[in-house]
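User: Run a structure prediction on this.
Assistant: Running it now.
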Amino acid sequence: MTENHYDIIIIGSGAGGGTLAHRLAPSGQKILILERGDFLPQEKENWDPEQVFLKNRYHTNEVWYDHNQRPLHPGTGYWVGGNTKVYGAALFRLRERDFEEVVHEGGISPAWPLKYPDFEPYYAEAEKLYDVHGIQGEDSTEPPRSGDYAYPPVSHEPRLQEIHDHLKASGYHPFHMPVGVKLNEANPLESPCIRCNTFDGFPCMLHAKADADINCIRPIMYRDNITLKTQAKVVKLLTNASGRVVIGVETEIENETVVFSANIIVVSCGAINSALLLLRSANEQHPNGLANSSDMVGRHLMMHKSDALLAISTKPNPTAFGKTMALNDFYWGEKEYPYPMGNVQTLGSVTKEMLKGDAPPLTPDIVLEQMASHAVGWWLMTEDLPDPDNRIRLHDEKIILEYTQNNQKSFNRLVDRWVAVLKSIDTEHTIMHLSAYFRKQIDIQGVGHQNGTCRFGPDSKTAVLDLNCKAHDLDNLYVIDGSFFPSCGAVNPSLTIMANALRVGDHLLERMK
């Protein structure tokens, strides 16, 4: 064995790879974590809206292309911890029915080969690992739980509490959003989180966000059996002559090519980049890309149908930490519309810099400041249905994102319905005509909530991965990120990725015995 040989190599350190590494670290197995990025710097710019939202300081400068060869600037970053460094840490479980076949107005959401009870214990563990705050029983669509949250719900600030109370009085069921944060409201002196206005979409300068870097990688990185290599970009996986075993991980480190090997290889680069790595690894035995005898690698890309909605009125909103409330009253539709519509949740704080990118040129800062200070931000999500023609592929080394919107009627209905609800609960009728509801559907270059590109299932003809997320076509290759999703529900995917990493981690611990 060479010094570059390990028991396990994990490629990527985000919600999937970071969680898996944390699970496997106590085993004593020799583990190499390869991360193409570095540690995100702890700097004042972490909390600078102009740097974060206008200058995209923490996003890659890569250029991808849409199906018409128009350039895209993907809203993704490469860091230890992956995109959890800047996520909103809204950590929802999929609904129990999300694991079954669901009929939508726009098509069918397929059943999962495993069901909610298979994931429930791992959801519970992931919530503890990622400091998820919440309260059992408030959410009318909540799946069965084996116990309450380990951490109490994050309280609403006065303006959001007022909206919460109006919603309740109108017969709706708002609830405290399950959010991963290192917050101690009972004893603020012991609280890393200070409830600032730079949580959702920002890196946390205080390391108080529960992300894969802070919660999973840093607690294990100094163990004798763990090796973490940053700025190590994996470019290709090499197989043996039969094509059944990955024997090399070709990696670029400081402009040199290094090949590592391991008994087990885990790919966890995010759904898009994991698929790209498999496609780039095509060889004589796998001419269409590694693990791609099904022709499913890169297909069924889902990213949720998402809308950022700002409700602006004459009433000021001084809320700092706004990521506290959600509502699922329309998740499965309503009496007049028997199709799923989706999830509603609050955004973090709204700043003038966030508005500036979409405002008309030369809009005065004072106007944007007034709008931001009177705005409540909402994030609306509808399920994106799996379509084999929605895919990521390579063409002459160009990354091509082919994507056509679907399920649009349900999405539009959710947005219109929520605008109507907001208007109905505004008790100050004199400001009704002054209220404005600005909306912006998130376009494909946002590439948030990406999943589905290496779906799992028992049939190698229709699925890339088996039920343990091992590639059907190879004996030692696993994919552990959002790639494995057969469908995506209408809640944030991070907790399901984390729970699945724990589940597959237990399988790998058994395999390595």
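Residues 154 and 354 are 24 Å apart (CA to CA).
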